[in-house]
Design goal:
heterodimer, A: 507 residues, alpha/beta, Rossmann fold, six-stranded mixed beta sheet, 18 helices, B: 339 residues, mainly alpha, two-stranded antiparallel ribbon, 73% helix
């Protein structure tokens, strides 16, 4: 295969040839070669930290490579800035896009290239252009061109970012985990769009952790591990387990542990719980049970979790914890009652990025660890070390700044915090979002183990294999309401998806 | 001066003892120490009177009042706020302490009264910030003006009373303990107490947490409001202490003179000492070093006979330099407006 790769260098639109990049002693990329061909979808896979993001950043000229060449249409180029790369038709769709809150969707899409009428912005044409873009890209009904950036959901923000990449004449478009904030329905629209981009002769690069999508859209798959290319395969000549093996050297079937638990007393009971975005929700979570909240992004699952934890006001219904009614006015009350929430956005909502692993683990228990407000430091270190070990947090030491850890290890630090607090009920909102395969398996194992030890776990997940792999019971939400409850044995991807979307389409 | 705490913290266990000590002090603090040494060497070489014990004691007593305010300003900045009204609070409490003293003849009553007024002024700042949901800069800018006005109203804009014959006030202003002026002892006590609180208690840990990531702190069960209120009350109390010392030093309650500019000086010292304006970062040691550096600079300019107007320029320049260095350390991109 290596021989043929050398020959077709000049057919490719964009070639990153033998690119290397190091950051303060860590070799992020080591002689990586990537070819993007017109009309093809190249999937880029690898665990977090494998070098995918760095590769995209070199492509978009956000970073300069230490060595290696960038070849565009057969000519070696070097881009002075991200703007320069854009001008040459190279677009990277960021996973967490920058959206200007006080500008409309249309302005966000066309920023820097607004249509003018003399010296003034032609607003009518701007909105019309945005409207037709949304329609042509297949996102009709999902996005209003006049909506303000600040009001957009994560999925809508992602769509704006995708639309931006289509403005002008893109030659190469790289998508960085585009579906992590999209529901299945929106993802489907994106896959159609990618198909059309290929027909138009655009080279697509697609970064994702999700196998199903890879096989759905990709022509070829390039796998990175530790900054090196492990292998490149045509998509129809490989399968999940080979790719996972290439990424981690681990078999897919080992990803999920599930021991069947005997559910005990109900720890959390919701009765007709109602808040701004949640209507009439009732269900129980028992001790020793993993309940997964499934549904589309925007179905009100995060809002429900925040209402339970006292972070959003409850307007009706009751929350019972261990049979006693709880009326939390702040997360503090809920935590005292034995509840906790590991939110979706670790970096902005859960972690003190500039503090140590130890400080982050002990955050919710420093009060308990203190006598007359003086922290018993040895005990603190002991507790932090024990939980870091239990969750196999990979860090050189407990004083390491948490921002230096990978996404998976950061998530483990958040879990360690709540294990240390001995919470009765853990609410985990998308616990494996942006987490690499190895750390995912660890997190699944811990969730299973927690339930086995008698904790109640409520997981919010949008990944169907994860829902099925983890759950003892599945509660599906749609538009702020519970649309169905499924036992582990009766659940399938089809009926979960059905409960998530079917009624919505009828309405 | 710009970086490296980060990288070196990583490999800590493998490094030598010297390196560990260096890390414990912190790169920013080492730069401050070096700057201080250079400054002292320069001033000393130009005028050897600088090294007289009496001159060093002068520096110490001048920085004491700014110093205690800079120490609490550090705490406010750690929690993600800012208090522009510290100088006005000091002026208000200076007047209060002198007026109560004159009315009752008791220094204790004057001191206690001033502390109560300071706590109330701080509490008011906290309430406006938390329950009025007003940005800390705006809230304390408003009270900066209001507390100064209040001080002028109750004193008719004039110095109040005479405390120069009272043993307690005289002791505070000119007393010595073990050969070191009381003013310097007070700075040391305040700095050590705050440092112990920040470093060894759950209160300190939670202050860093609230300033570092308020959402995470709230979801971890920390009562944000309580901490923010508490910090502003603490500032009020310490500002009152500064006001009392001001009264003691000048012999009378001063509504504005002596307290004007303390807000700028305390913020400059905290920023120069490594406090992040975004909260969550900063140390008392850094702030105290910066206070000493500023004091030496001010003293140097005086004994070198530099026009006193240049002192303001020097101080403004230092604040800008301190914050520029910090932004570099924070590593933010050079794009867009600073946050």
């Amino acid at each position: 295969m290596a021989a043929s790769q050398l020959q077709d260098t000049d057919e490719a639109v964009l070639v990153l040839d033998n690119v290397s990049k190091g950051f303060s002693g860590v070799q992020a990329l080591d002689a990586v070669t990537l070819r993007a061909r017109a009309g093809e979808v190249l999937a880029l896979m690898g665990e977090n930290g494998a070098g995918k993001s760095t590769l995209l950043k070199i492509m978009s000229a956000a970073h300069a490579a230490d060595s290696g060449r960038i070849v565009l249409d057969g000519n070696e180029v070097s881009f002075a800035s991200p703007v320069d790369a854009r001008r040459n038709g190279i677009r990277v769709v960021a996973q967490e896009p920058e959206i200007m809150g006080n500008l409309s969707v249309a302005e966000n899409v066309y920023v820097g290239a607004l249509p003018r009428n003399g010296r003034l912005v032609d607003r009518a044409r701007l909105f019309e252009m945005a409207r037709s873009d949304i329609e042509r890209a297949g996102f009709s009904g999902l996005l209003d061109p006049r909506a303000y950036g600040r009001d957009l959901s994560p999925a809508q923000r992602q769509i704006v970012e995708i639309l931006r990449a289509l403005v002008g004449k893109p030659r190469v478009i790289a998508f960085d985990e585009p579906t992590s904030s999209l529901s299945d329905h929106e993802a489907e629209a994106l896959f159609h769009l990618i198909g059309r981009l290929c027909e138009d002769g655009i080279a697509v690069i697609y970064v994702s952790h999700r196998m199903k999508e890879i096989f759905r859209v990709a022509t070829r798959v390039l796998v990175l591990r530790d900054g090196r290319v492990v292998g490149e395969r045509p998509a129809d000549e490989t399968d999940d387990s080979e790719l996972v093996r290439m990424m981690v050297g681990r078999d897919l079937s080992t990803l999920f542990h599930h021991t069947s638990h005997e559910p005990g007393r109900p720890i959390l009971s919701l009765r007709n719980l109602t808040s701004a975005d949640v209507h009439d929700v009732s269900f129980d979570v028992h001790a020793g049970e993993v309940v997964v909240l499934a549904g589309l992004v925007g179905a009100g699952r995060t809002e429900l979790a925040r209402a339970i934890i006292g972070d959003l006001p409850v307007t009706g219904g009751t929350i019972l914890v261990d049979g006693e009614e709880m009326k939390p006015t702040s997360p503090r009350d809920a935590i005292r009652a034995g509840l906790c929430l590991a939110p979706e956005e670790r970096k902005t909502q859960a972690l003190l990025m500039k503090r140590s692993v130890k400080d982050n683990i002990s955050l919710a228990i420093v009060g308990q660890l203190s006598r007359w407000h003086v922290i018993r430091r040895r005990q603190e270190r002991e507790v932090a070390a024990r939980h870091a070990r239990r969750l196999s947090v990979r860090t050189p030491n407990l004083d390491n700044e948490v921002s230096k850890l990978s996404g998976g290890n950061q998530q483990k630090v958040v879990l360690a915090r709540w294990l240390a607090r001995r919470s009765k009920l853990l609410i985990l909102d998308e616990p494996t979002r942006g987490v690499d395969v190895g750390a995912k398996a660890d997190i699944y194992a811990i969730i299973d183990q927690l339930a086995a030890e008698g904790a109640a776990v409520l997981v919010i997940s949008s990944e169907l294999p994860e829902v099925l792999g983890l759950a003892d019971r599945i509660v599906v939400m749609q538009r702020g309401r519970v649309s169905g409850e499924l036992g582990r044995d009766e659940a399938s991807e089809e009926n979960i998806l059905g409960l998530s979307i079917l009624e919505e389409e009828a309405a | 001066m710009t970086t490296q705490t980060n990288e070196s913290a990583d490999a800590r266990p493998k490094e030598g003892r010297a390196r560990r000590v260096l890390n414990a002090i912190g790169v920013q603090n080492i730069s401050l120490v070096i700057a201080l040494i250079l400054l002292v060497a320069f001033i000393g070489s130009q005028n050897s009177n600088f090294f007289y014990t009496s001159n060093l004691a002068t520096i110490g007593t001048t920085v004491a009042i700014v110093g205690i305010l800079a120490v609490v300003q550090t705490v406010v900045m750690l929690i993600g706020g800012l208090d522009i009204s510290v100088g006005s609070q000091a002026g208000l409490t200076s007047v209060t302490s002198a007026m109560i003293f004159m009315a009752t003849g008791s220094a204790t009553a004057g001191i206690v009264g001033a502390l109560v007024v300071g706590a109330a002024a701080g509490l008011f700042n906290g309430i406006v910030i938390i329950y009025g949901r007003v940005n800390a800069v705006i809230a304390t800018l408003a009270t900066f003006a209001a507390y100064r006005g209040l001080a002028n109203v109750i004193s008719n804009g004039r110095a109040q009373g005479y405390t120069g014959t009272d043993a307690v006030f005289v002791f505070l202003a000119r007393g010595n303990v073990f050969g070191i002026p009381v003013l310097i002892w007070i700075l040391i006590l305040v700095a050590v107490a705050i440092q112990l609180m920040l470093h060894y208690t759950d209160i300190g840990r939670n202050i860093y947490a609230v300033g570092g990531n308020a959402v995470a702190a709230r979801l971890a069960g920390i009562a944000l409001n309580r901490y923010v209120l508490g910090v502003y009350v603490l500032v009020g109390v310490v500002a009152a202490l500064a006001g009392i010392l001001l009264t003691a030093r000048t012999g009378s309650g001063q509504p504005t003179s002596g307290s004007q500019g303390l807000e700028l000086q305390s913020i400059t010292a905290a920023a120069l000492g490594g406090c992040s304006l975004q909260g969550g970062r900063g140390t008392i040691v850094g702030t105290v070093l910066a206070v000493i550096l500023l004091g030496v600079l001010q003293n140097g300019l005086i004994i070198l006979n530099v026009n006193s107007f240049y002192q303001d320029i020097a101080q403004g320049a230092l604040l800008v330099i301190a914050v520029v260095i910090q932004q570099k350390r924070a590593g933010g991109g050079g794009v867009g407006l600073p946050t």
